[in-house]
Structure formats: structure tokens, C-alpha cells
Amino acid sequence: MNSPTSAEEPWPVRTVSRKIAEWIHRLGSIWVEGQITQISMRKGASTAFLTLRDPSADVSLTLTCAASLLRGMDPPLTEGSRVVVHGKPTFYVGRGTLSLRVDDIRAVGVGELLARIERLRQLLKAEGLFDAARKREPPFLPARVGLITGRASAAEHDVLSNARLRWPAVRFEVRNVAVQGSSAVPQILEALQELDRAPEVDVIVLARGGGSVEDLLPFSDEALCRAVSTARTPVVSAIGHEPDSPLVDHVADVRCSTPTGAGKRVVPDVAEEGQRIGQLRERARRALHGWVDRERRLLDALRTRPSLADPLGPLQQREEQVEQLRERSRRAVTAVLDGQQRELAATRSRLTTLGPAATLARGYAIVQRIEDGADGVLRSVDDAPSGTRLRVRVTDGAVHAIVPDEQG
After folding, report:
1. Distance CA 253, CA 126 (A)
2. Tens digits of residue pLDDT in 85-132
3. Sheet-wide strand order for 172-176
4. What pTM did the predictor assign?
């Protein structure tokens, strides 16, 4: 394969096919698991052709085996069966095709399927995909409900009819897909992604009727479980009947035991809501009436109070009290003033009695010596030698005198 080639020296097709065949034929035998989607075996032919598909992806592989191998299987192999095959990759040079030459085909039993589902259940649980904390509550009244189910199936009828009975105005976006077989998972994944991208879809319902473990196997597929867990829109799972419990039930945000339950879960009951609204209105009416009655009684009680029954009476009482206080204040002030006036008069009388004017009025005089403009009270005759100028102050004025030369 590493030999050089060029535009001038290209390899012929036979060489390329032969070298590819040589490389593939060096591969060893392998065990492969998948789902049979097509069986082609002509009557009397020695070779049978089958198509093996990956249940979780749009990938298939052609198988070839001896026709006697298929005829000897009990029960007979049918399309949709889960199998494990042993074979060797083979490249047919003449047609340029790859196939797996099978020498052993083993049907996967129910026990093995359940064991695999249980292992996957433990894995997803350990990753937290089943945790209640990550589950979201669907809206109370979704604008539009996405429904993924089989075409014209009983599950579709149950969801639509029960939802419309409860809320006639509900709108659905229905995606009909295969709900079992090899094409189920890819179609469901495509429908789920499409509805999850639609902004008007508020909740998505996965619905399917009951069936065997093999029939419900797509709803325990790992790829589907992870797609449901990462969806931005809340997902409601309604797969099978009450005993059925595929893995998608544990991953979905809400699990309903039947499609009928899903139809009742995604929308409210208009009759119940109308009744609830009526009850709330009645409670509001009673509460309002009770409040009005309490306020009316309070007003009646306020009216009966003296301040409201006779609003001028308290004012008049206050006026009388103010007038009494004013009178008391006036009397108190007058008494204080009278006392102060009497005390002042007594003090004035004492001052008058003790003052020089009263003494002068009794006939006394004050003699003052006038020297250089300075007045001095004369207290002794020795202080007034002859020729001393004097001023004699009496009660109504003053006279001036000069001390004569001889004193008598």
C-alpha cells in the first residue's frame, strides 16, 4: 500500500482492490452486536445476505452466511431481532464491497437484554442523570405541546383525546416516528431535537403503548437517554403500561405510567380550574364582605364615641379649662405684681426715711465748703476758718455764705 504512485504511474483498479482485500483479510475474526433489519435468502440458494444495523446510530453492515445457518436456527431469525454474530471482515474485489462473513449467529435473549439495561441503568445513575435535582417542572399551561409517538397509534389517540378533554384549546406539534425496530432510535432522536429547537414548544411528550422487552428496547437506548437529559425543553415520558419502566422514564423530567396519564399531566383540567377560580372568587367575596363588615362596625363604634357624637362639647370643655387656666394665671401674676409693688413701696419708704432729703425736711442743713470748685461737707468749725466760702443746702435749695472774722 506504500508503493509510490503518480499521475504518470497510477495503480489500476484491480491493484487497489486487491491490496485493500489483502489488508482487510489480515484482520481477525470479531464478535459484533446489532439488530437485523433485512434478510435476503433465495429458495435453494447456499448463501444468505443480511443487514445488521446499529440500534443507536444510522450505521449498518452487510452480513453473508451459509443459508443452512439460518435454516437451522430455532426460533427462526426475523427482522428486528437483536443478535450477536461472529465473523471475519471480507472485501469482495469484483464488486468493491465490504461485508462480514458470519459463521455463528446468536440471538440476544431477554435475560441478556435486561442485564445490559441494568448495567446501563447503574452507569446513568452514577452520572447523576436520574437525580431529582436536575428535573424540571413542566409549565402549568404550555403554549404548545410536542408529541413524539407512533403514527395513528393508540398512544397518540390517548394523549390527544385526554388532553383536549381537559383543555380543549391545547395545541400539539405531533411527530410520528417508529417506536420499535432498528429505525426507532434515530427517528426519535431527530424528532426530539427538532421539537427541542422549536421556541413555541414548552413541553415534549414521548408516548408509546405497552409491549415486550424487545419492543420497548429503543426507550432504554443510551443515546436517547442522554439526548433527553440534555434537552432544554421539559420531557414527559409515557412509555408502556404501569409495570413497564424503560430507562428513559428515569431520565425524563416527568414520568407518567401510561399515555392517558401523560394527556392528563401536561395540561390542567378546565373544569377543575373553573371550579377553583369559582372557589377563589367566593373566598375573595367572603373576605371582602368580612373586611367591609369589620370596617363598618369600627365606624359605628367611632360614631358612638363622645368626640364624634358631640364634637363641640370637648372643644367647649377645653375652652373653659383654658379660660380657667388663664384666670388663674392672671390672678397669680397680679398677686406677684402686687406683692412686688408693696415690697418696692416699703423699700422706697425706707430709702426716703434714711435719705438726706428727709433729714433736710426736718430742718437740718448740709454745710459744704467751696474750695477751688470742690465741695466738702463741713463737719467741724475748725474746718471753716474766717473767710471760708460755704454753701448751705436746705430742703428746697442752697444758699452761700462766708465765715466772718469772728466766730460766735
Report:
1. 17
2. 999 999 888 888 889 999 988 877 666 667 778 888 899 999 999 998
3. 172-176, 145-149, 203-208, 235-239, 254-255
4. 0.54
